[in-house]
Design a protein that fits this description.
Layout lengths: L2 H16 L7 E9 L4 E10 L2 E13 L2 E7 L6 H6 L7 E3 L7 H4 L1
Parallel strand pairs: 4-5
Antiparallel strand pairs: 1-2, 2-3, 3-4
Length: 106
């Protein structure tokens, strides 16, 4: 797949999760797509039980033909969803998991 296909796949995944509503609280889900810089996010904003709720649920970037999952706050993860929409497994990078450096791997 090319970068445009990956953009489309990422958007489908994020839009799918944006349709869900939290079971409690007054929380809004905001979809943020920046095709110019290849940044894609699903944010949560609102109130729950007297406390402010805000932050990423999903944050993905595209870089050098790779889908970089910077943050995945979905309980079961979004990797299977990306694969379902055609993103190649070797092109998905889970940036929130520390990768051993080349020196440590040797």
């Amino acid at each position: 797949m090319d970068t445009q296909d990956y953009r489309t796949a990422i958007k489908h995944v994020i839009e799918t999760y944006a349709k869900f509503r939290p079971s409690h609280g007054n929380i809004r889900l905001d979809v943020l797509f920046d095709d110019t810089h290849d940044r894609y996010a699903l944010m949560q904003v609102g109130w729950d039980r007297g406390r402010r709720v805000r932050g990423n649920l999903i944050y993905i970037t595209l870089q050098d033909g790779k889908v970089i999952v910077e943050y995945d706050g979905i309980e079961h993860g979004i990797t299977d969803d990306l694969l379902q929409y055609g993103v190649a497994e070797q092109d998905i990078v889970l940036a929130f998991i520390e990768q051993p450096s080349m020196a440590e791997a040797a």
